[in-house]
Specification:
heterotrimer; A alpha/beta; B alpha+beta; C alpha+beta; B: alpha+beta; Alpha-Beta Plaits; three-stranded antiparallel β-sheet; two-stranded antiparallel ribbon; 5 strands; C: alpha+beta; Arc Repressor Mutant, subunit A; Glutaredoxin; 7 helices
């Protein structure tokens, strides 16, 4: 480790550290504009100039020359060096405060300000702007630019529906361009022209079409890129920033909800190095609008005669209690509860407690529609990725195996984190039935045949055993297993339609790697649910490779929604013979639906007799209900979510509830009290305290503990004092903040436990027959239950289309863009008509349709028709 | 006794003198006493010579206000509906005069000289709500012969930026030196 | 739309470089030869052929002066007005030439789309000033007024013939 002297302080830093980074621990502040700790240095702005010297070496002895005082003689470099591109070396001496450095900073700032408009009072960045801050600290106190007006350029250029560009304010640091290139991997921003005419621009159509475009607003060190969503709604120092957790997907990105006048004005990422680092996808940034939609349900309603009429809470609760009370006891079994997995742990816990303890029913579920495809619960419980695993920091000695997932559209920020791990030395294997964005970053990528997932995984197991890399110290029946596994790698490869060499390499790399992580996504969960052999094979791969029970080892299930993991932990599953969702929708007599909308995906859904719906909106299900309880949005209450990596995270209350809306847990408590329960939870924190006592994995997970590092941001910043986080983000002064807590899996808490491995013969799937396989994908920006209330998201929702392989397209004589009719083998028969998109992302024999766009919203996801053969029967040219 | 008499005469003399001298009180509200030029009374929002509003909705007055008496809700100008120079104007501007302590910090903070504490001191209300004065009450009338706002104005001429450039440039002032000499 | 031959030429160019992206500049020349300049459509077409985003290709095209992201005349004169040329009276010659071509202020291309006249930074011919560059190909040196008039006349004739 090189020893360097910075401003007289000696510090050891790892080799390869840049001067700007080395200066942070010693408390020397080097101002930057173009440098950002998450990106490669560029050296574009020259703000970080420092004086650098190297010890004079004696050519004969190769030792530093010392002066009469025994101090090394320093050869100062003749000119100032950029701290953001200069790597430290042994004996280097750096001065960051000399008059020469101060003069350089002053000159750079003066230069930048010659063409920077005097917009600070009207600029949305004003108040959290590095150019403002640096000018105050290091800039010239006066101007020598005594002319009537400065250089002028275009203002308010809409770069995309989300982003407004002010060309005058741009200081040409290129952070936005580099972010899109390096981090997002969607090079949709470029620098056009040169010199004074240089401008950030996009030539794409639709312009600046990226799912991560909002991050460029945060990292822009001036007000050149601003949010059109936030534009002129508040000054940043007027916002109250409440720590929250994004509710849109299972990653659980940490965010701040910036509120003013009881409205969320903007959502910005909150640093959590273990979850989202400092990034946020555009969906998370824009979807908050539903919280104050005028269409929210604000009063309880009961069905009097034929219409739902607003009533008081007392009446509504009484109405329900009177209806339930006579049927309590045995007949309670006909009651069923369906809850959405976007709800907080506290809500889900009390919901199942209401059913199990008061109503005496185990008919509980949170899996329906497309989110029913989450399987592999036992795998996660036993072998979940070890506590302390940080996916963004995976490096040498780690192999990450991604199976049947498309994080680009389903867990976007996870995609950002995984796409950099190969650069850090990790091995990333991406295997799916179709090409995904992440595959371009993978060390090994392969496309298996849909339906042959079990063979693919068994091939890996076989390759591992053949190479003698398996470990059987924690396995029961390892020997029997390898005997029972009557398939060769070549046979598995043939079934899965991948090359045997690839399968062998992947299997051996994974097994030989010091650490191994398996991530499986929605498409793989579907396979697991269809064929138990898939889960058995994955189980064997994990146990025999020994990759579980410690940090950077184990399995991560990429669940569909923000609290799917929490719903499982809270017991929102039908146990002891309870009815699962598919049954309860038809068999239950009384249905309590909380934060879920089964009727949206299944229009045939009917009110089973008596139905209580607790939701934010008059959903399709609520319209059929007998009672509607208005629930408060996530921003209007506090609680916890458990993300897909089992990290329990606290979100604070940021808004006053709308109308008479109440938190879900409070509504459940009131109903329980009406039914005679002696519940006295005063807050969500009280419920969490009980969870911490009752659920062993959640022990000690109180709100107080989860709130560490998840603090509210002060609304008014003091100049020169602690910079608030968005300023730090733009300044590039990030410190590694981590918040939340992961629960330990069974294999971690029981180090001596042994696990059974059993071979299950894969079922020869229906997909083996000739035909076209329909892969159901997701689009990130959609017209979903909550996204439909955000206008900006709606402008960016893509049109539904069906992806077809170019070979198939040729064989079926379908041109790119032509309308295609897809018929399903379902009851009743269904057909879709969509434009075809001929590209290489699906293999021959597969077509892919996103099931959350206009026209494809109700793709038959229930039971038998989730993924079926389709016939591309008819092509009508446009 | 003599002493008492003297006191009586002196007293009557004082009374008599005051009877003929000019009274210090005056007949308010019929007569209004002029206030000093820098008197800080009720605020006004000023306009540029061509009638555009000087206020650009930057909220710096609200940030400077020690009594939290000012509320500004900004919005974006358009060429067809222009209120002020530049991109931004105050869609709502409210001052709670019961909270206001008339310190003049808002005036000090204003980058365009839009808000000025003027000479109106008749600030009594029948109810608290009417003590919150809105933009329509604060905004002065446009200069003689000029239109009010909003107006269709694609080219605001010299007023193209939120902070309009000063004719002939600005005088060189070294604020660092100024600050040092003050300390 | 790019012609099939142009597309094929681009594919051949790609094969010539170890990193196929390196062919973006010659590919832009191919497209420019087809369109006369580089409209958005040409940039999109090159991007599709190169497997890059339009933005990446557009950034390159707008950086270099030899690519025209605005329509230009049949012939482009880049007239140097940097210091050595200016000392030899290039500014006056440039102004005269503009007048001769009938160009208004901010106008670079003649009404008949024959000639585009632009200021250029140093062309590296400082010993034989003033200099100009014709169509990114040929440098003309020691440009006296007579030689300029002759050149313009010659270009006009060539343009009228075609």
């Amino acid at each position: 480790m090189p020893k360097v002297t910075i401003d007289g302080k000696i510090i050891d830093v790892p080799a390869g550290t840049l001067i700007v980074e080395a200066a942070k621990p010693v408390g020397s502040h080097i101002p930057v504009f173009c440098y950002h700790p998450k990106m490669a240095p560029a050296g574009m702005c020259r703000m970080c100039l420092v004086q650098v010297g190297m010890p004079k070496m004696d050519p004969a002895t190769k030792q530093p020359v010392v002066d009469e005082n025994g101090q090394p003689v320093i050869n100062w470099m003749p000119k100032l060096q950029t701290g953001c591109t200069t790597v430290v070396s042994e004996g280097m001496v750096v001065h960051t405060t000399t008059p020469q450095v101060a003069e350089a900073r002053r000159s750079i700032l003066e230069f930048l300000l010659t063409s920077h408009p005097l917009d600070c009072p009207v600029c949305d960045k004003g108040g959290e702007c590095p150019l403002q801050d640096h000018t105050l600290h290091y800039g010239p106190g006066n101007t020598r630019f005594y002319v009537e007006s400065k250089f002028h350029n275009d203002k308010a250029v809409p770069l995309s529906p989300l982003i407004m560009l002010d060309r005058e304010r741009c200081i040409q640091c290129g952070r936005c361009v580099r972010f899109q290139d390096e981090i997002a991997g969607e090079p949709s921003l470029g620098l056009a022209d040169r010199g004074r005419g240089l401008e950030v621009t996009t030539f794409d159509d639709p312009p600046f079409n990226s799912n991560f475009s909002g991050n460029t607003i945060d990292i822009c060190p001036v007000g050149a890129l601003t949010s059109r969503d936030f534009r002129f709604t508040a000054r940043v120092f007027e916002l109250n920033d409440y720590p929250s957790v994004c509710q849109q997907c299972a990653v659980g990105c940490n965010v701040y909800l910036g509120t003013r006048d009881n409205l969320i004005r903007r959502v910005t990422p909150r640093q959590n190095e273990a979850v989202n680092e400092v990034w946020l996808c555009d969906k998370g940034r824009l979807e908050h609008h539903y919280a104050h939609s005028p269409e929210r349900v604000t009063t309880p309603m009961i069905r009097a005669e034929s219409d739902l009429t607003p009533v008081s809470w007392y009446e509504a609760l009484n109405f329900v209690a009177n209806r339930i009370r006579p049927t309590l006891g045995e007949s309670g079994k006909s009651m069923a509860g369906l809850a959405g997995d976007r709800l907080a742990n506290e809500d889900l816990y009390l919901f199942q407690k209401l059913f199990r303890e008061i109503l005496g029913s185990n008919n509980l579920d949170h899996r329906f529609g497309w989110s029913q495809w989450n399987a592999g619960d036992a795998l996660v419980k036993n072998f979940g990725a070890g506590v302390g695993t940080n996916l963004g920091e995976l490096g040498k000695g780690v192999t990450a195996l991604l199976l049947g997932a498309d994080p680009q559209t389903e867990q976007p920020v996870l995609r950002l984190r995984l796409s950099k791990i190969t650069r850090q030395g990790a091995t990333l294997v991406v295997a799916n039935g179709r090409a995904t964005k992440l595959a371009q970053y993978a060390s090994h990528k392969t496309i298996y045949r849909y339906g042959a997932e079990a063979y693919f995984v068994l091939g890996l197991v076989r390759a591992m055993i053949d190479a003698g890399l398996h470990k059987s110290d924690k396995a029961n029946g390892a020997t029997e297993y390898s005997a029972a596994l009557n398939l060769t790698v070549a046979e598995c490869a043939a079934k899965a339609e991948v090359s045997a060499d690839t399968l062998k390499t992947i299997g051996e790399t994974f097994a030989a790697s010091e650490n191994g992580i398996i991530l499986f996504g929605r498409e793989f969960m579907y396979a697991m649910q269809r064929d138990p052999a898939v889960e058995a094979a994955l189980n064997a791969l994990l146990i025999l490779s020994g990759h579980f029970g410690r940090k950077n080892n184990g399995v991560i299930a990429l669940y569909p929604r923000s609290n799917s993991m929490g719903a499982l932990d809270m017991g929102m599953t039908p146990t002891d013979g309870g009815m699962p969702a598919s049954e309860m929708l038809t068999k239950a007599k009384l249905l309590y639906v909380m934060g879920a909308d089964p009727a949206r995906e299944n229009p045939a859904f009917k009110n089973p007799g008596f139905m209580i719906v607790q939701d934010l909106f008059m959903t399709a299900t609520a319209q059929k209900a007998d009672v509607v309880f208005p629930a408060s949005a996530w921003a209007e209450r506090d609680g916890t979510f458990t993300n897909t990596e089992r990290r329990v995270q606290y979100f604070a209350r940021a808004l006053e509830p709308l109308g008479q809306a109440r938190p879900d847990w409070a509504i459940i408590q009131e109903l329980a009290q009406q039914l005679g329960a002696k519940w006295t939870y005063a807050s969500a924190g009280d419920v969490m305290n009980e969870i911490a006592q009752r659920i062993p994995t959640y022990a000690k997970m109180t709100h107080a503990r989860l709130q560490v590092n998840a603090r509210r941001r002060a609304s008014v910043q003091t100049v020169g004092g602690d910079a608030a986080e968005p300023v730090q983000m733009a300044l590039g002064e990030l410190i590694g903040v981590v918040s939340g807590a992961q629960w330990a899996t069974f294999s971690e808490t029981n180090a001596d436990a042994k696990f059974d491995v059993k071979f299950v013969q894969p079922a020869d799937s229906a997909q083996a027959t000739a035909g076209v396989y329909l892969a159901v994908t997701r689009a990130l920006l959609d017209c979903g239950a909550l996204a439909q209330y955000s206008e900006i998201i709606q402008t960016r929702v893509p049109d539904a289309s069906v992806e077809i392989n170019s070979h198939d397209a040729e064989a079926w004589e379908i041109a790119n863009g032509a309308r295609v009719r897809i018929t399903f083998e379902s009851k009743p028969p269904r057909a879709l008509e969509l434009p075809a998109r001929v590209d290489g992302s699906v293999p021959p024999g597969v077509v892919a349709v996103a099931n959350n766009l206009d026209g494809t919203m109700n793709l038959p996801m229930g039971a038998q028709v989730q993924v079926t053969q389709v016939q591309v029967s008819q092509a009508i040219a446009d | 006794m003599f002493e008492g008499l003297r006191a009586l005469v002196e007293g009557l003399l004082t009374t008599g003198k005051e009877m003929v001298s000019k009274p210090v009180t005056y007949q308010y509200p019929e007569i209004k006493k002029p206030v000093p030029p820098r008197f800080r009374g009720r605020h006004e929002l000023k306009r540029h010579a061509n009638g555009l509003e000087k206020c650009i909705g930057c909220s710096l007055c609200a940030a400077a206000c020690p009594a939290d008496a000012i509320y500004v809700l900004p919005a974006a100008n358009s060429d067809q509906e222009r209120y002020s120079p530049g991109e931004r104007y105050a869609a709502r501007y409210e001052i709670n005069l019961l909270r206001c302590i008339f310190c003049g910090f808002c005036e000090e903070a204003c980058p365009t000289g839009a808000i000025v504490l003027e000479h109106d001191y008749e600030l009594a209300y029948y109810d608290r709500r009417s003590a919150i004065i809105t933009k329509t009450q604060l905004l002065v009338a446009p200069p003689q012969g000029e239109q009010g706002t909003p107006r269709d104005m694609p080219d605001p001429g010299n007023l193209y930026a939120a902070i309009p450039p000063i004719k002939g440039g600005v005088e060189p002032v070294n604020i660092v030196e100024m600050a040092q000499t003050q300390v | 739309m790019l012609s099939e031959t142009a597309k094929q030429k681009i594919q051949e160019l790609k094969a010539r470089y170890p990193n196929a992206r390196s062919a973006v500049m010659p590919a832009l020349y191919v497209a420019q030869a087809e369109y006369g300049w580089l409209p958005q459509e040409a940039i999109d077409a090159v991007a599709a052929e190169m497997g890059m985003t339009s933005t990446e290709v557009g950034s390159v095209a707008s950086f270099y002066t030899m690519y025209h992201v605005k329509p230009v005349g049949a012939h482009v004169i880049d007239f140097c007005t940097d210091l050595p040329c200016a000392l030899a009276g290039a500014d006056a010659a440039f102004a005269r030439l503009r007048e001769r071509l009938g160009l208004d202020a901010h106008q670079e291309t003649t009404a008949d789309d024959a000639i585009t006249l632009r200021h250029a930074p140093c062309l590296g011919g400082c010993d034989k000033v003033p200099t100009l560059l014709l169509d990114n190909q040929a440098q003309y040196q020691n440009m006296t007024d007579e030689k300029l008039d002759a050149l313009v006349a010659q270009l006009r004739v060539a343009h009228d013939k075609s």
